[in-house]
C-alpha cells in the first residue's frame, strides 16, 4: 500500500510540470527515465486499490496531455479549423435594427492558461464587477470566438453541406452532421467523465484497508495511515477536477450545438416554400427552436453516462466481490432488479411527459392565438370566454402533471430506498451463504451502494432523455429537409440583356402543388422597363397571387418567369418590426435626410397600399411617390381605387385566376367585357358624392329644414359641447409627444435587480394553505435522515471489526433492526416526496391562474407595448419551472442542510475536533456563496431576458419572410439572428461558468475538511476510537464534499430559479382595465334605448383626415358595464383577424347559431359560393391567421361575424378597405338593410361610404375638428370635410 501511494503521489506531483514541459512525450529526458522507473515498480503491487489507481492515473495523464495540446493549439490557432471573422454588430430589437458598432468586450476564457481553466479563475474579473454592482448587458464579456454563433453556424454548414454532397439530405445525414460537429470536444469530455467515474470508487475500495489499519494492522506504522489518507485525498482531488471539467465541457458543447441548430432552423424558416410553411405553424417552428433544440442538447450531457455507467457498475461489482465474495452477485442481481423496475416507470413517465407536452402545446397554441387576437376578443367581449377556454386547456395539462408528480414521488421513494433494499438483499444473502460480515466489509459495501444509487437511476433517465432527444432530433431533421423555394422559379436576367423587366410566358401557378384547379392559369405578361402596370379585379380574383409569382413565392407548375433588376415589395398587410419608426423605414439602408424612398430598386411591387390611407394621403402618395420619385422605375400596383387606373401604362383585369383583360384605361372601357362593372361601381359612388355636394349649395328654405331640427339638434348641440370639453381635456396631453420622447412604443423588458426579495419566497411558500404543509415536509425529511443514519450506525456498531472478533448481537437481530430502520426511512422519504410534489403543483397552479387572469384583464395598451414573446416566455418556460422544478429546488435547500447535519453528527462521534475546522470552512463556503450569488443571479436574469428576443425575432421574420426575401435581406436578418443568439449565449455561458467556479472551490474546501478528518483519525492512538464507527465516519465523509457543495449549490440554484417566480409575479400585478361590473354605477334597465340615443347623437360615420383612431371616444361610456354593453356592440377592426380552425368556428366561435343562419350570412357577405366550392363546406380549413384566404376575404368574414351577431351598435373601422368597389357597394347595401334600426359608426377613407350618414365627425392629428351633419359641413366650403369632398371629386374627374 505504501508503495502504491508513494508512486501515485510522485506521478500526481509531477503532472503540472510534465504538462508544461511536455515530459510525457520526451522519452530521452532524465526526468522521463525517472518516471519510467517509478512506473516499472508498479506491477509488484497487489493491493485491491492498485489497478484502480493505475487506471485513474492513466486516464488523468491522458486527459491532461490532450487538454494541454488542445489548449496549446487553440492559443496558437493551429487546430486545423478555419477561423471566420465574426462581426455581429446588428442588434435587431433594442435599440435598433440597423448596423451599430458595439463596444468590444475582452474574452477572459480565450486568454486563460491551464491553471485558470482548471480552477475557473478566469471568471474572477466578472465576479469583481458583479459583486460591486448589478451586472448589465455590457458588463458581460464576449464569448470565445469558437463559441460565437457565426463561427459555429458556418462550421456546421460546411459539415452538413459536405455530408449532403456525399450522401444526400436525409435524417441519417443530419444525424451524421451533428456527430461530426461535436465529436472532437465530445471525446475530451468522455475522457474526463471516465476519469471521474474511476476516481469516485477509489474511496470505497480503501475503506476496508482503513478499518484494518484502525483495528491494529499497522505493518508500516503511521506511515501507512498517512499514505491511505493521501490516497483518499488524491482520488477526491482528481474526481473534483475531472467532474468539473466534463460537466463544464458538456454544457459548453450543448451551447455550441444549440447555437448551430438555432441558426439553421432560422435560416430554413426564411427559405421554406409555401407548401412547407403551411405544414408547420409559427408555434411549431418556434418549438423546434426552443423545446426540441433544448432536448437535443440535453442528450449531450447524458451521453457521457454511456461511458460512465459500465465503469461504475464494473468497479462496484469488483469492490463488492473483494469484500463480500459471492455475496456481490446478490447485490448485482438486486441492482439489476431495481434498474428493471425503473424501466417501466420511466416508460410511464415518458408517456406522461408526452401527454404533458401535447397538452402544453395545445395550451400554448391557443395562448398565442389569443394574444395575437386580443384586440378583437376585447372588442367583441369574448375575452372571458377565451379565458375559460385557456383554463380548460390548463386543467387538462394540470391533470397530466398531477399524474406525473405522483409517479415522480414513487420514483423518488425507490431512489432513496434502493441502497437499503440492495444492502438488505446483499447482507441477507451473505448471512445465508455464511459469508462473514465485518465492519470494514459492511462499510465498504454501504459506501459502494450509495455510489451505485446514482448509477441505478441514471440508466432510466438516460433511456428517457435519449428517447425524447431522438424524437426532437427527428422533428428538427424532418423540418430541415422540408422543401424550399425553388431557386429557378424566377430567372434573373441581366439589365443589359433585355428591354423587359418582367416577363411571364405560359405561366401556371398554384399554392397547392397537388391540385386540379391552379390558382393562376395561362398568365402571359411582358412589362417593359419604366412601365406602370395596374392590377385590378374582384375579391379573390388572384391579384396578390400574381405579385407572389413574380416574387418567386408561389409554386410554378408550368411556364417561365424572368426578372431583370432588383425588387422592392409592399405587402397588403403591413409588416412592422419591433423597434422604432426610423429603423422600419431605413430597413438596413443608411440614413439620408434628403431621401424619401430608401429602397433604390429597379422593380416596385405594391399590393394595394392605398386602401389603408385616406383620400388625400393616397392621392399624395400616388402623385409624389409612384408618379414622381419613382417615375422612371418599373411599377406593378394592385389597387381597388379606380381613380388610380388611368395613369397606368397597362391595366390587368383579373378574374378567377386569369388575366381576362389588359390594355390602357380607355381601351378597356371600349371592350365592354367586364371592366366597366368595376368602373360603373365607382361612378355610382362618385355620383352620390357629387349629388351631396350639389345639394349643399342649394339655398335652404324654412320648409327644407328637418322637422325635428329644433328638438333633435338642441340635444345634439348639448352633446357637441360635451364632446368639445372632452376634446380639450384629451388634447391637453399629446400622446404622440410621449411616443416621440421614448422613441418607440415597445420598451425594454422589465428586469428586477439585486437579491430575490423575501416577499417572493414568502409568497411562494404561503400560497397553499398558508404554508401549513411546509413544516410537515421538513419533519418527514428529518425523520428520514434520522432513520438512515441510525440504520448505518447500527450496522457499523453491531458488526465485528474483524472476522476473528466475536459478534455482540445475533445475525438475526442485526438484520431485523436494519430492515426495520430502512423501511422507516423509506416511508418517511415517500411522505416527503409526495408532500413536495403536492405543494409544488398546487402553488404552481395558483400562480398560473393569477397571472392568466391579470393578463386577460390587462388593457390593450399593455399588449400594444409588450411583445408577445415576453408573455409566452412566462406562460411557457417560467411556468414549466414552477410546475416541475421550484418545489424540489426549495425543498433541497432545507434537505441538504439536514443531510449534512447527519454527516457531521456521525463524524463528531469519533473526530469531534473536526468542528474546529468545519466551522471556519463553512463560514468560508458561505462567504463564497455570498460573493457568487449577485453575479450569478444577474447572469441568470440576463440570460432569461435575452432568450425572448430570439423567439420574438424569429416569429417576426416568419411573418415577414416574403418581404425579407423580396428586399434581398436574408443575410442581414441571419446576422441579426446570430447576434441575438450570441447575446443569449454570453450571459448563459458565464452563468454556467460561475456555477463551476463555485462548485470547484466548495469541493476543494470539502476535500480539505475530509483530509483533516482522515489525518486526525489515523493520528489517534490505537484503540482510542471504535474502528467501526471511525470507518462509518469516513464513509459519510466521502460524500461530505458533495453535501457541502449541495447546500451552497441548492441555495444559489434556487435563487436563480426563483427568478421565474419573480417574473410571473410581475405579470400578476399588471394594472387591470375597469371592472366588468360596478354595482353602484350600473345603468338603468332602459340601457339599450338610452345608449342608442346617446350614440346616435355622438356617432354617425367618422371621416378621418389622419390615421388617429377614435375608438377612445366611442368606448368612453362602455366602462360602466363592459360585458353587458359589448353584447350590444359589434366592431370590425381595421386588421381582419381569423382564428385557426374552420369557417364556421370563425363566424360563430361560441356556437350560438344554426348552420342555416351561418349560410345566410355567408351569402350576404359574398362568400357563400366560395365556401360551397370547398368539399368541407362550413368545416373548410382556416390556417394560422387565415393565411389561406385573401385579405379582402378575411374582411368579409369579419363582416359576417357582426351580421350574425346583430348588435344594436355597429362600429366599422375600415371594414371594406381591401375589397373592390362593386363588392363594397353590395356590402354597404347589406349593412344598410341589416342594421337599418341600429346605430352605425363608420370609420372610412372612402368618402362615398359616409356621405349619406346622419352626422360626420372629422379628426385631424388626434383631435376632433368638425362635428355636424354632412349638409351643414358641405355648406361651409372652408371646412375640412368640404376639402376632402372636393379633393375626391377632383381626383375622380373624368368618370
Automatic annotation (TrEMBL):
- Listed InterPro entries: AAA+_ATPase, ABC1_TM_dom, ABC_transporter-like_ATP-bd, ABC_transporter_C-like, ABCC_6TM_D1, ABCC_6TM_D2
Start and end residues of each ABC transmembrane type-1 domain: 187-468, 776-1056
Biased-composition ranges, Basic and acidic residues, are: 730-750
Q: Cross-referenced PROSITE patterns, in alphabetical order?
A: ABC_TM1F, ABC_TRANSPORTER_2
Statement: the UniProt record of this protein carries the keyword Repeat: yes
Any one GO molecular-function label of the UniProt entry: ATP hydrolysis activity
Q: What does this protein do?
A: ABC transporter that may affect phytic acid transport and compartmentalization. May function directly or indirectly in removing phytic acid from the cytosol or in vesicle trafficking. Required for phytic acid accumulation in developing seeds. Phytic acid is the primary storage form of phosphorus in cereal grains and other plant seeds.
According to UniProt, the name of this protein is ABC transporter C family member 13
Amino acid at each position: 500500500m505504501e508503495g502504491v501511494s508513494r508512486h501515485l503521489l510522485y506521478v500526481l506531483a509531477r503532472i503540472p510540470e510534465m504538462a508544461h514541459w511536455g515530459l510525457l512525450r520526451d522519452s530521452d529526458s532524465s526526468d522521463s527515465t525517472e518516471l519510467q522507473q517509478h512506473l516499472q515498480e508498479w506491477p509488484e503491487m497487489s493491493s485491491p486499490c492498485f489497478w484502480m489507481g493505475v487506471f485513474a492515473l492513466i486516464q488523468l495523464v491522458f486527459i491532461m496531455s490532450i487538454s494541454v495540446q488542445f489548449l496549446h493549439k487553440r492559443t496558437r490557432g493551429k487546430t486545423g479549423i478555419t477561423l471566420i471573422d465574426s462581426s455581429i454588430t446588428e442588434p435587431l430589437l433594442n435599440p435598433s435594427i440597423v448596423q451599430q458598432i458595439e463596444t468590444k468586450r475582452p474574452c477572459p476564457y480565450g486568454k486563460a492558461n491551464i491553471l485558470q481553466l482548471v480552477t475557473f479563475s478566469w471568471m474572477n474579473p466578472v465576479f469583481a464587477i458583479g459583486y460591486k454592482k448589478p451586472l448589465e448587458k455590457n458588463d458581460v464579456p464576449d464569448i470565445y470566438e469558437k463559441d460565437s454563433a457565426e463561427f459555429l453556424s458556418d462550421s456546421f454548414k460546411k459539415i452538413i453541406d459536405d455530408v449532403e454532397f456525399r450522401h444526400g439530405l436525409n435524417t441519417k445525414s443530419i444525424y451524421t452532421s451533428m456527430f461530426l460537429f461535436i465529436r472532437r470536444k465530445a471525446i475530451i469530455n468522455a475522457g474526463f467523465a471516465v476519469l471521474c467515474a474511476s476516481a469516485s470508487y477509489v474511496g470505497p475500495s480503501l475503506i476496508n484497508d482503513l478499518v484494518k489499519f484502525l483495528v491494529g494492522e499497522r505493518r508500516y506504522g503511521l506511515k501507512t495511515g498517512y499514505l491511505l489518507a493521501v490516497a483518499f485525498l488524491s482520488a477526491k482531488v482528481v474526481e473534483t477536477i475531472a467532474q468539473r471539467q466534463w460537466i463544464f465541457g458538456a454544457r459548453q458543447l450543448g451551447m455550441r450545438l444549440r447555437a448551430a441548430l438555432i441558426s439553421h432552423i432560422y435560416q430554413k424558416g426564411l427559405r421554406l416554400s409555401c407548401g412547407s410553411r403551411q405544414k408547420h405553424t409559427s408555434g411549431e417552428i418556434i418549438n423546434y427552436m426552443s423545446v426540441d433544440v433544448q432536448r437535443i442538447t440535453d442528450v449531450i450531457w447524458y451521453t457521457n453516462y454511456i461511458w460512465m455507467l459500465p465503469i461504475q457498475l464494473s468497479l462496484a461489482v469488483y469492490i463488492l466481490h473483494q469484500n463480500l465474495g459471492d455475496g456481490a452477485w446478490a447485490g448485482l442481481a438486486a441492482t439489476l432488479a431495481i434498474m428493471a423496475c425503473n424501466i417501466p416507470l420511466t416508460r410511464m413517465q415518458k408517456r406522461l411527459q408526452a401527454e404533458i407536452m401535447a397538452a402544453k402545446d395545445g395550451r400554448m397554441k391557443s395562448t398565442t392565438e389569443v394574444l395575437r387576437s386580443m384586440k378583437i376578443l376585447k372588442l367583441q367581449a369574448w375575452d372571458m370566454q377565451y379565458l375559460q377556454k385557456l383554463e380548460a386547456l390548463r386543467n387538462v395539462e394540470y391533470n397530466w402533471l398531477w399524474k406525473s408528480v405522483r409517479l415522480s414521488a414513487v420514483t423518488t421513494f425507490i431512489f432513496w430506498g434502493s441502497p437499503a433494499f440492495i444492502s438488505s438483499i446483499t447482507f441477507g444473502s451473505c448471512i445465508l451463504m455464511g459469508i462473514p460480515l465485518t465492519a470494514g466489509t459492511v462499510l465498504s459495501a454501504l459506501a459502494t451502494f450509495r455510489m451505485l444509487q446514482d448509477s441505478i437511476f441514471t440508466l432510466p433517465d438516460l433511456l428517457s432523455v435519449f428517447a425524447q432527444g431522438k424524437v426532437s432530433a427527428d422533428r428538427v431533421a424532418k423540418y430541415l429537409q422540408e422543401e424550399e423555394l425553388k431557386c429557378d422559379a424566377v430567372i434573373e436576367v441581366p439589365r443589359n440583356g433585355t428591354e423587359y423587366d418582367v416577363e411571364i410566358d405560359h405561366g401556371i401557378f398554384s399554392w397547392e402543388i397537388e391540385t386540379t384547379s391552379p390558382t393562376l392559369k395561362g398568365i402571359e405578361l411582358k412589362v417593359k422597363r419604366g412601365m406602370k402596370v395596374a392590377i385590378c379585379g374582384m375579391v379573390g380574383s388572384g391579384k396578390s397571387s400574381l405579385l407572389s409569382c413574380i416574387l418567386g413565392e408561389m409554386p410554378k407548375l408550368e411556364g417561365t418567369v424572368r426578372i431583370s433588376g432588383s425588387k422592392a415589395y409592399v405587402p397588403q398587410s403591413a409588416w412592422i418590426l419591433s423597434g422604432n419608426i426610423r429603423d422600419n423605414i431605413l430597413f438596413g439602408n443608411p440614413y439620408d435626410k434628403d431621401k424619401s424612398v430608401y429602397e433604390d430598386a429597379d422593380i416596385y411591387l405594391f399590393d394595394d397600399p392605398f386602401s389603408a390611407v385616406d383620400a388625400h394621403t393616397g392621392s399624395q402618395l400616388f402623385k409624389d411617390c409612384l408618379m414622381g420619385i419613382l417615375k422612371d422605375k418599373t411599377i406593378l400596383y394592385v389597387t381597388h381605387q379606380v381613380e388610380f387606373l388611368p395613369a397606368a401604362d397597362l391595366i390587368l383585369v383579373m378574374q378567377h385566376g386569369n388575366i381576362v383583360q389588359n390594355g390602357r384605361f380607355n381601351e378597356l372601357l371600349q371592350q365592354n367585357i367586364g371592366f366597366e362593372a368595376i368602373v360603373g361601381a365607382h361612378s355610382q359612388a362618385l355620383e352620390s358624392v357629387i349629388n351631396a355636394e350639389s345639394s349643399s349649395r342649394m339655398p335652404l328654405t324654412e320648409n327644407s329644414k328637418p322637422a325635428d331640427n329644433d328638438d333633435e339638434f338642441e340635444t345634439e348641440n348639448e352633446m357637441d359641447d360635451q364632446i368639445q370639453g372632452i376634446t380639450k381635456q384629451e388634447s391637453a396631453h399629446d400622446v404622440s409627444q410621449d411616443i416621440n420622447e421614448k422613441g418607440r412604443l415597445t420598451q425594454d423588458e422589465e428586469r428586477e435587480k439585486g437579491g430575490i426579495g423575501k416577499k417572493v419566497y414568502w409568497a411562494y411558500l404561503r400560497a397553499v394553505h398558508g404554508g401549513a404543509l411546509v413544516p410537515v415536509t421538513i419533519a418527514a425529511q428529518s425523520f428520514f435522515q434520522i432513520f438512515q443514519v441510525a440504520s448505518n450506525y447500527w450496522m457499523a456498531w453491531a458488526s465485528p471489526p474483524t472476522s476473528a472478533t466475536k459478534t455482540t448481537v445475533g445475525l438475526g437481530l442485526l438484520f431485523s433492526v436494519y430492515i426495520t430502520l430502512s423501511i422507516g426511512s423509506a416511508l418517511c422519504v415517500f411522505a416527503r416526496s409526495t408532500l413536495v410534489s403536492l405543494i409544488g403543483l398546487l402553488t404552481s397552479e395558483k400562480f398560473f391562474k393569477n397571472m392568466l387572469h391579470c393578463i386577460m384583464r390587462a388593457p390593450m395598451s399593455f399588449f400594444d407595448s409588450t411583445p408577445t414573446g415576453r408573455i409566452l416566455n412566462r406562460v411557457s418556460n417560467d411556468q414549466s419551472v414552477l410546475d416541475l422544478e421550484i418545489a424540489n429546488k426549495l425543498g433541497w435547500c432545507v434537505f441538504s442542510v439536514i443531510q449534512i447535519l447527519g454527516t457531521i453528527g456521525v463524524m463528531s462521534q469519533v473526530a469531534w475536533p473536526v468542528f474546529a475546522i468545519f466551522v471556519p470552512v463553512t463560514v468560508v463556503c458561505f462567504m463564497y456563496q455570498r460573493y457568487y450569488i449577485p453575479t450569478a443571479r444577474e447572469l441568470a436574469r440576463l440570460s432569461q431576458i435575452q432568450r425572448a428576443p430570439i423567439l420574438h425575432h424569429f416569429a417576426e421574420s416568419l411573418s415577414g419572410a416574403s418581404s425579407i426575401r423580396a428586399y434581398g435581406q436574408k443575410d442581414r436578418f441571419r446576422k441579426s439572428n446570430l447576434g441575438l443568439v450570441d447575446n443569449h449565449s454570453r450571459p448563459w455561458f458565464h452563468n454556467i461558468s460561475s456555477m463551476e467556479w463555485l462548485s470547484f472551490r466548495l469541493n476543494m474546501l470539502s476535500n480539505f475538511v475530509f483530509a483533516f478528518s482522515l489525518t486526525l483519525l489515523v493520528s489517534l492512538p490505537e484503540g482510542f476510537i471504535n474502528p467501526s464507527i471511525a470507518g462509518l465516519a469516513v464513509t459519510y465523509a466521502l460524500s461530505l464534499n458533495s453535501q457541502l457543495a449541495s447546500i451552497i449549490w441548492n441555495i444559489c440554484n434556487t435563487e436563480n430559479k426563483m427568478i421565474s417566480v419573480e417574473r410571473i409575479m410581475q405579470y400578476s400585478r399588471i394594472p387591470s382595465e375597469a371592472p366588468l361590473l360596478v354595482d353602484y354605477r350600473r345603468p338603468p334597465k332602459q340601457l339599450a334605448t338610452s345608449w342608442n340615443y346617446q350614440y346616435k347623437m355622438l356617432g354617425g360615420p367618422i371621416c378621418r383626415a389622419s390615421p388617429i383612431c377614435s375608438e377612445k371616444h366611442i368606448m368612453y361610456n362602455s366602462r360602466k358595464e363592459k360585458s353587458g354593453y359589448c353584447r350590444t356592440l359589434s366592431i370590425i377592426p381595421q386588421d381582419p383577424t381569423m382564428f385557426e380552425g374552420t369557417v364556421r368556428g370563425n363566424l360563430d366561435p361560441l356556437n350560438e347559431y344554426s348552420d342555416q343562419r351561418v349560410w345566410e350570412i355567408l351569402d350576404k357577405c359574398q362568400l357563400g359560393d366560395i365556401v360551397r366550392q370547398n368539399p368541407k363546406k362550413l368545416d373548410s380549413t382556416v390556417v394560422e391567421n387565415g393565411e389561406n384566404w385573401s385579405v379582402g376575404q378575411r374582411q368579409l368574414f369579419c363582416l359576417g361575424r357582426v351580421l350574425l351577431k346583430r348588435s344594436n351598435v355597429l362600429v366599422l373601422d375600415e371594414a371594406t378597405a381591401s375589397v373592390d368597389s362593386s363588392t363594397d357597394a353590395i356590402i354597404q347595401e347589406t349593412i344598410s338593410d341589416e342594421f337599418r334600426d341600429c346605430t352605425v359608426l363608420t370609420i372610412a377613407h372612402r368618402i362615398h361610404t359616409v356621405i349619406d350618414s346622419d352626422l360626420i365627425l372629422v379628426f385631424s392629428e388626434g383631435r376632433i375638428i368638425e362635428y355636424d351633419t354632412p349638409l351643414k359641413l358641405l355648406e361651409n366650403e372652408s371646412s375640412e370635410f368640404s376639402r376632402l369632398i372636393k379633393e375626391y371629386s377632383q381626383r375622380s374627374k373624368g368618370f
